[in-house]
Amino acid sequence: MWQYITRRILQSLFTLWMLSVITFGIAKVTPGSPLGLDDPELAVKMTPEMRQSLITAYDLDKPIPWQYGKWLFNALQGELGLSLSLRNEHVQDIIARNWPVSAQLGLSAGVLSIGLGIFIGVLAAVKRNTIIDYASMFISVVGTAVPNFVLAIGMILLFAVTLHWLPVTGWGTLDRAIMPIFVLMLGPLAGIARYARASVLEVIKQDYVRTAYAKGLTQRVIIVRHVLKNALIPVITISGPMLAGLLTGSFFVETMFTVPGIGNAFVSSINTRDYPMIMAQTMLFGSLIVFLNLAADILYGIADPRIRFN
Amino acid sequence: MSEARTEKQSKTAQDAAHLSRPPDNPWIKAFRRLLRNRAAAAGLIIILLFLLIGILADVISPYDPIKVDFAAVRQAPTLQHLMGTDKQGRDILSRIIYGTRLSMSIGFLSQIMAVTIGTILGSVAGYYGGKADTLIMRITDVFYAFPSLLFIIILMAAFGRGFVNLLVAITFSAWVGSARLVRGQVLQLKELPFVESARALGASDAHIILRHMLPNVLSTLMIAISFGIPGAILAESGLSFLGIGLVPPTPSWGIMLNDGFAVLRAVPHVVLFPALVIAIIMIAFLFLGDGLRDALDPRG
Q1: What is the pTM of this model?
Q2: Domain segments of chain A: what residues?
Q3: Is the pLDDT of residue B212 over 90?
Q4: A91-303, which class in CATH?
Q5: Domains defined along chain B, listed by start
Q6: Contact of B198 with B127, CB cutoff 8 Å
Q7: Which residues of chain A are at the B interface, by a Cβ-Cβ cutoff of 8 Å?
């Protein structure tokens, strides 16, 4: 087991390192210097001394591997540099300010999507081919196919513009949180429900379940004790990637409902080409996803011993 | 008793008919299975319809999709403008029709390119193994660990907005899936006797890969494409909506959503129609993809 965990941690670290190289590389090959050094209009206004001091300040005269090394060294100590659009602020301070809001939104949506997803999926499988099953299939089709920004538009048109029940913008009160959380959670919920349903249907066919019925156990006991334990193990593995969907989802949801979180900040830093912000947030999102996948794999390894010896 | 006998007889008759007929082409059989699935058939018809709309955009579009008409701003749907007009007086139906051409082009082009790249790299990795395999697989591991949308966004941030850049960014993030699929299948096929015998008969590597392996991978790839196309359409409309994808006034569904979202309270129809179109095409592709998976892989 420990060997398996160690191997997965090393793989994850390698993945993160590769991501940092790719992100840094893309920022470096990008046409158009963020400081406007190759902008002819700015170049006229800039004295050679100013130009030189900018180049030295941002280490642009040093070789790229050296720049990468310095960036990585600083980043590992939590120093992510100055934001280009908010010039007086450090990237880590901006992220620290926006982070709690996104954590609230993401955690609520994550917990709800796993809980409700498993519940709906299991219920649909147990009540196969009833109205409950069809209703849950409808939810999972809508959640899987309809993109979150289209869903958000539909919700806003219905609940805010037509019915005037819910506010559209802001964060901090429950009524403001309902729509963002619902829109964000529906996609992962649908995926988990589909998967849980298929998994339960697969397990129900097994011989030991038939044996349990033959022994005269009630359906309730069989489902809870014999089916769920085995059916939900594979659900763990897709929960990691599913929850990664919360992250890209937050770009849309936070922008549309003006939630002041990191998804919103990421989109604005893309629009202003704020490279220190983009790089820091990409690495943050990357670490989060790698961590989620790692946690899911380790849980899976603990739950199902066959996986460890792969 | 007599019922059982007739059943048995008809079964023998069926068997006999089956024997006398040449064996069905597995593709035709799969296609029949697909059409028998009503949701998948409906999805297929809707997608073909949208393809036709995209191809015939110049012919059927009632107005120029980017021509501004300040005499007809923000009009509700009328007989002249079936879906109304937006804040610059552009006909929404015409923009949706041209947006269909754009979405379909992005979806199909990016997936064809991605699958070509993925198939080449995946078959090389699977067939030859060794260092090439390790290198290609380590790269795909990194891509696989992250949501593709994040990669596309970073690439768009670096290289700027526009059709070609978006197409390249989507392709670049999409080849990974097919590379892994093809590699996995090639690894399995490599051990099978028919490949062994082809090699014994002196077939070249290229011949074995092209004639004996890829046809076996085709159905898996078709399923992957049927899920990849809506993914690409989604990436285009989503990023254009966020202002990271294509540049206005391009008639793209995402840009139309962006235009409409700004005036959502005053004139809801501007955002409503493109939103509905996106929802319909996404559901159509989901039904087709699920149907294809069931039809092409009866075991799964």
Answers
A1: 0.86
A2: 91-303
A3: no
A4: mainly alpha
A5: 34-60+92-295 (1.10.3720.10)
A6: no
A7: 11-12, 14-15, 18-19, 22-23, 26-27, 29-31, 141-142, 144-147, 149-150, 153-154, 156-157, 161, 244-245, 247-248, 251-252, 255-256, 267, 270-271, 273, 278, 282, 285-286, 289-290, 293
